[in-house]
Amino acid sequence: MDVGAAIIGARARVVSALAARFRDLDLAEDAFSDAALTALAVWPADPPRDPAAWLWRASLRKALDATRRMATRTRAVFDDPAPEPTPEDIVMQSDTPIPDERLRLIFVCCHPALAPEARAALTLKVVCGLSTERLARAFLVAEPAMLQRITRAKRKIAGAGVSFEVPARAAWPERLGAVLATLEIAYAQAYEDAALAGDGADFAAEVLRLSGLLVELVPDDPEVLGLAALVRFAEARRAARLDRDGGMIPLSEQDVRAWDSGLIAQGARLLDRAAAYRRTGACQILAAIHGAHLSRRDSGVTPWPTIVRLYEALRVLRPGPVTAVNRAVALGMAQGVEAGLDALAAAPADGRLDRWLPWQAARAWLLEEAGRNEEARAAYDAALALDPAPAERLYFLRRREAISAPEG
Amino acid sequence: MLLIYEPHDAYTGDNGEALLMEIVGKHMALSQDLEQNGVLLGGDGLQGVETATTVATGEGGVQTLHDGPFAETREQLGGYYVVEVADLDQALAWARKVPVAVGGKVEVRPVMIY
């Protein structure tokens, strides 16, 4: 048996069950790590019939030991009367299956009382078991800073009294929204990561798994389905996103043969399921936009007018510079570059748009499409001055070179 | 603890007086609601920050008095409720019901248990 895979596979379930029982994330994580270490030592010679159940019993024992030690230490100081008997024996002897508390744990880690960035890191740490070091790399912060982010979030959960219950249905729109936003941030990080360091596949695989898990736990929410579809559609293109030298290949120029048809089919099924609820949301629209781009695989052309319409719908739900810039590009392709450039000029700004890389990159691309090489070159220069990631840098350099070549 | 912050000029406009009466009325309703649910431990409105005096303790325990609140901000602490509930979600549900003027904020903070 693959011991590592069995441990990773059981992790979310066991840690969630421990966290729900002890209401202590650190205790749950530590107890599971201890049990996993024992498993690594014992399983090769004596593989368990049910690895998850084995890990659940072993970590439960470790957690109970730890709480007993804590109680003993407290008694030594305060000289309390004898402790109540622990329920350990009853639990250890019974053959009860592991309770499935994964949704509870996800709701705890994604509580809106936590900062969005902290939620994403904490969820990936506690639910998926990613190391602080791995998270630091993915979120582009130093390891001590990541550790602090996670520690602070855990302290807030304990200190502010975040409940370990699944929230009442009435609170779901907001709470599930926070969960979806968390997964979106986590995936955005995984997506960036691929282009930046080239080792993002494992990270993205976790987000893929997590979004699938959420569908399993909340099968009847169209936005949950939409997000899972979105992640699958975007991941399907992973192999096609970089060229051999590590340069970025824009979506509309990617080789469709390198797209993963299995993930595309999964995404399409999820999005179909979502559509049946007739309750549109941002995740579904984003997934539909990805799906429209992917349809080039079969039709040979990108349906830009459809993509423009989808961005118009998205603009209602998510007005803001990101949507505006993407819509402008689609508009430029659907109705002519001038329309795109006009839309770009009218984009809402958080700060100065010309200092914002996606805006500058979109402008450069549209200008190049219009054959306005002089201006396009200047725009590529401006984009390069904004410190793009290596894959993007290489792409901008090449575009600039291509249009600098003597014409005719 | 639900700490209520509102913009310093929330009740100074033309409708200030009327708005204040409206908010005060809602506070009375909320107090009743809190009491009927058995979660109210206490609470008060505070007089304006122009009445505030701050005791500052510096190096070596030297204390000085300052006229005014400890921090000059647009939003000012105007009152508080102390409620006893099971978890943050319940506290937040009550915090949402605290009446405030536009721009008002309610900060939820657990009380230290000694």
From TrEMBL, chain A:
Any one biological process term the GO annotation gives = DNA-templated transcription initiation
Query: Where in this chain does the record put each RNA polymerase sigma factor 70 region 4 type domain?
Result: 106-157
SUPFAM superfamilies in the record, alphabetically? Sigma2 domain of RNA polymerase sigma factors, Sigma3 and sigma4 domains of RNA polymerase sigma factors
> From which domain of life does this come?
Bacteria
Which residues are in coiled coils? none
MF terms per GO, please? DNA binding; sigma factor activity
Q: By its UniProt entry, which Pfam families does this protein fall under?
A: DUF6596 (PF20239), Sigma70_r4_2 (PF08281)
Give the matching PANTHER family: BLL6612 PROTEIN, BLL6612 PROTEIN-RELATED
Kindly provide the name given to this protein in its UniProt entry: RNA polymerase subunit sigma-24
